[in-house]
# Entry
Amino acid sequence: MKIIDVICHTLFDPNTNPDATSSAYDDLVVEIITDAGIVGIGDSDTNPWMARACIESPSTHTMGMGLRDMLIDADPLDIEALWWRMYVGSAHHGRRGAGVSAIGAVDIALWDIKGKAAGKPCWQLQGEQAQDAVTPYASLQPEAGGDVDRYTKSLAEWAVRAKGNGFTAAKLEITPFGPYAHDGMNEPPGSVVEVAAACRDAVGSDMTLLVDVQYAFDDAKTALPILKELEALDVFFIETPLWVDDLEGYAYLADHLDMFVAQGEWLTTRWEFIDVMDRGKIDVAQPDVGRVGGLSEAKIVCDLARKRGRLIVPHCWLTGIGIAATTHMAVTAEHCKFIEFLPADQTDSTLRRELLDEELCLVDGKIMPPQKPGLGIEINREALKKFAHK
# Structure
């Protein structure tokens, strides 16, 4: 079997809110076409036009190659060799960032092909089953018009709705200040605790709550007293309290907090995760399957975390394609406590709601191990046309 074409779909939701920091409004979907008629699908949560350039650009020298040039006529089942060919062949302009995210979309599509060719779900080709079912948490980030009181009420209502829909855990995106500040809010740091407390009161003590403040604090010593207050609310982890590169600050928080510290949604490759686990001392590693370099690289990060006694709670915000890939990863990782799940009916992104005809869904608060070949999902061809953007 050979690869005969690589097709990139750059998608954009025209109903986007330009004031929101949300990647649910755009996407790069990659299709890998084989001469056996098997088509693999993948995507990655990054700027789709930048990632498309990494795939489609003409090659200029042996380490400045476009990914497509390296894939045509290759055996799609030789995934490990192809990953290294792409990583080394694009190292001059890639190696991290959008270059690795583009490799991630391709790698997911290759695993989809491999599963379809074998007639097995991807996870059965990656390792032994470690979980009977995967526990998702609802990722909640409502918009509230720049008013912290309205935001608090809205977030609490969303948490209650998520619990009613069967979720046993929810992540609260609480950013009334900082680079991800919701709708221009600029509230004092203590408002994070007030919002979280309102949500805890709304859902009761039997629901697991996670809090993401999205890089809001300037330094660890400023963040620590606020995060200590969050601990009293029985918060499972605090996600990205500091800027992604402040590894010394993350180590300080890990040393001084009882609740877990989580980070990793922006990281690419195993090497960045080694740094954040060893130097940053994080308790929970959060690889995004597409961004980190695909299912192949995500599996390596999972193994590295397990050897260090760390948990895996992957980032997965964008689409049902990523949710499927993340679920396949989680089934073989016993230390994957939760996966992120953006419910289609709790997003204002039409793209998120319509991209797939069939995707994995919640059953009694769990996602069951997929049984269909490959990723086990079906793309909506009309959505590819509807959201196509040059």
Notes: The radius of gyration is 20 Å. The mean pLDDT is 94. Residues 172 and 211 are 5 Å apart (CA to CA).
